[in-house]
Amino acid sequence: MNQSQKNIIIWTLASVFALLLIILYMTGWRVTSEFRVGRTGTLIMDIPHTGVDIYINNDEKITTTEDEKNIEKKLSPKTHKIIVSLKDFYPWTKDISMPSNASLTLRPMFVPQNPSGFIITEIDKDYYTIKKNIVANKFPEEAEPKLHPDGSVRIFVKNNTIFAIRNGEVLEVLKSETKIKNLDFYKNRNDVVLFSVAEAVYAIEIEKVGTQNFMPIYKGRNPFFVVETDSTIYLEDNGMLMEVLI
């Protein structure tokens, strides 16, 4: 076999190998930074607002152009950093491990940096009823945890610590150094809770894996609250009664 024939064989093998790599890449196969082989997975993000910027690994940006949109993105089976940003809202971040040839759904929480609301005065016919409901809104204890409407999660407070029960597993959500006064689900979500301590009301994710997002809803002096709707709470702070959008 002369050199020309060898070159043809080498070129043919190289071409076949390159074609094979292209086919594998086009069908979703990747070699990760951990030198493992896997197929791309699908990241699904539930984004309820337009104008939301989604940053993936700080090198790719997606901006939503309509409300109530599910964003789908193919990602290699490795660890990725996701940052979600919307003007006048706190940024949300999560480190994810994308499973090979599977899907992963994320629901970022959108908490306004300056929530709006209005003061409720004694002129309002529901003034005293609201005050009574706030006083009666004690946090759920271990013996009688609060059940999410979909039946998937229970939450309660024990030893000044917030716990969640999900799929039979007890998860420690947050241990507070100051007294927890109220606890409920945030916007009727089964993965985020709303609670009040000291001078503020906060929302915090139940899941700690991949960054546990923790954001203030309201800061004052000594707030107590009761949930009114999926998007509002009644709040009493130092004698002042108000309705606050969350």
Give a summary of the structure in a few sentences:
By secondary structure, the chain is mainly beta.
Topology record:
Layout: H1 3-26, E1 29-31, E2 37-39, E3 41-47, E4 53-56, E5 60-63, E6 69-75, E7 79-85, E8 92-97, E9 103-106, E10 117-120, H2 127-136, E11 146-147, E12 153-158, E13 161-166, E14 169-175, E15 180-185, E16 192-197, E17 200-205, E18 214-219, E19 223-227, E20 232-237, E21 240-245
Parallel strand pairs: 3-9
Antiparallel strand pairs: 1-2, 3-6, 4-5, 4-7, 7-8, 10-21, 11-12, 12-13, 13-14, 15-16, 16-17, 17-18, 19-20, 20-21
Question: Can you describe what's shown?
Answer:
This protein is mostly beta strands. The chain folds into two domains: about 30-105, Carboxypeptidase-like, regulatory domain (Immunoglobulin-like), CATH 2.60.40.1120; about 115-245, no CATH class. The protein is built from two helices and 21 strands. The protein has helices at about 5-25, 125-135, and strands at about 30, 35-40, 40-45, 55, 60-65, 70-75, 80-85, 90-95, 105, 115-120, 145, 155-160, 160-165, 170-175, 180-185, 190-195, 200-205, 215-220, 225, 230-235, 240-245. The chain is globular, with a radius of gyration of 25 Å.
Q: Secondary-structure element sequence?
A: HEEEEEEEEEEHEEEEEEEEEEE
- In round numbers, the mean pLDDT is 86
End-to-end separation in angstroms reads 78 Å
> Spatial order of the strands in the main sheet?
5-4-7-8
Low-confidence regions: 16-25
Shape: globular
How big a fraction of the residues is strand? over 45%
Integer-rounded radius of gyration: 25 Å
Largest sheet: 4 strands, antiparallel
Total beta strands: 21
Give the count of helical stretches. 2
Proportion in helices: 10-25%
Structural class: mainly beta
How many structural domains in the coordinates? Answer: 2
